[in-house]
Amino acid sequence: MFGLILMKLNILLATLLFTGSAFAQTTPATSCPLPVIPQGTNTATFPSPRVDWVARVYNTNQKAHQIADSIKLVFDGDSITDYWKGTGKAVWEERYGKLNAFDFGISGDRTQHVLWRLTQGQVDGIHPKLIALMIGTNNLGNNTVEEIADGVKTIVADYQKRCPEATILLQAIFPRAEQPTDPARAKIKAINEVISKLGDDKKVIYIDFGDKFLNPDGTMSKEIMPDFLHPSAKGYQIWADAIQPIIDRYFPTK
Fold first, then answer.
1. Is 71 in the same domain as 10?
2. Buried/exposed 68-86: b ≥16 CB within 10 Å, e otherwise
């Protein structure tokens, strides 16, 4: 199985190099072996790619680098962030279109995938004022609370190294599942408690507004999150309203 995956990845990268010279500048080589994760390593902190989305990563990086000088607001994360380009598009265009924001979020990503994207030059040459980050919900089934929190911490540190002038808006992982008794709720709460300590209200601003997606009894409405994970258009409006005071701090209205 590993050999088949590796062969497919090499074919994909070779195709990218053949079909577009721009990829030659961002693709490390025609042969890109999958990393081998050492036994006992916290997988949430080990930079690793998802083979199925390598092409998308390179395409996204290419687009971002073409407008690098104009990008001042970055969003990054998984499908919840990715869907700003779909379900949340109207709110995005209203709130962030004029701010030259760029969305790096990719559906299905875990902490290790964001780390790998960063190693591929995702923000090279980009100098954002603010980086809105939310990641970790897709790690729930494979990693412990401590591992996931460490993964988030590693991403924050990596972003700080690559974009030292930026402030990171670290958003708590959104609640998921319809009922407050669902085990995922407790695990997310525990993760958020750990990563909240990363906030210093200076270079890392931590914000948790998950309760805004819930009913008073703690249940989740399909009107806000139809699948009890991804926000509806109304949910994206709630999200935008929650972070607007911070957005205004870094992008004041003239």
1. no
2. eeebbbbbbbbbbbbbbee
